[in-house]
């Protein structure tokens, strides 16, 4: 387990950064301000009030976003510690994990939240699916598997 927290923390922070930059970029094509994108995350807890709280809800939205991606990475690391094939095939496992995360976020988490949002237009919804695969699932799997593989290689070396 040595280094395990570093693996999932690094994976979660990277995935969170990639995903929030993506979200801001994709919604800017619809003239949605970056602060509003992040406030939309905070609206999951605060409802419509998030859009009137300025920097407070922006900070909350960022904190929630990174808490979620850290939890996503921790969950993958936990699973990879028990299912070795996840680390042996990180691209496939990461792609599948990205699809699973997309379905869970859009089918369970957002509907159960206080977010007053409707579904994204289909071109953005498809792009969001791709982002969950390529910017969240695969990076998490590669970091977790890559570090795990290096650790296994180091243990296999003669001492």
From TrEMBL:
Lineage: Bacteria, Pseudomonadati, Pseudomonadota, Gammaproteobacteria, Lysobacterales
Protein name in the entry: DUF1440 domain-containing protein
Record organism: Vulcaniibacterium thermophilum
Assigned keywords, A-Z: Membrane, Transmembrane, Transmembrane helix
Transmembrane segments: 58-79, 91-112, 124-145
């Amino acid at each position: 387990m040595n280094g395990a927290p570093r693996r999932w923390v690094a994976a979660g922070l990277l995935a969170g950064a990639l995903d929030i930059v993506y979200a801001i970029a994709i919604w800017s094509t619809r003239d949605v301000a970056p602060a509003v994108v992040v406030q939309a995350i905070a609206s999951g807890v605060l409802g419509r009030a998030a859009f009137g709280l300025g920097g407070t809800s922006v900070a909350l939205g960022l904190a929630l976003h990174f808490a979620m991606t850290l939890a996503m990475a921790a969950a993958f690391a936990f699973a990879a510690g028990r299912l070795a094939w996840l680390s042996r095939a990180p691209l496939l496992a990461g792609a599948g994990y990205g699809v699973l995360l997309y379905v869970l976020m859009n089918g369970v988490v957002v509907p159960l939240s206080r977010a007053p949002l409707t579904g994204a237009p289909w071109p953005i919804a498809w792009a969001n699916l791709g982002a969950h695969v390529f910017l969240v699932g695969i990076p998490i799997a590669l970091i977790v598997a890559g570090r795990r593989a290096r650790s296994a290689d180091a243990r296999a070396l003669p001492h």
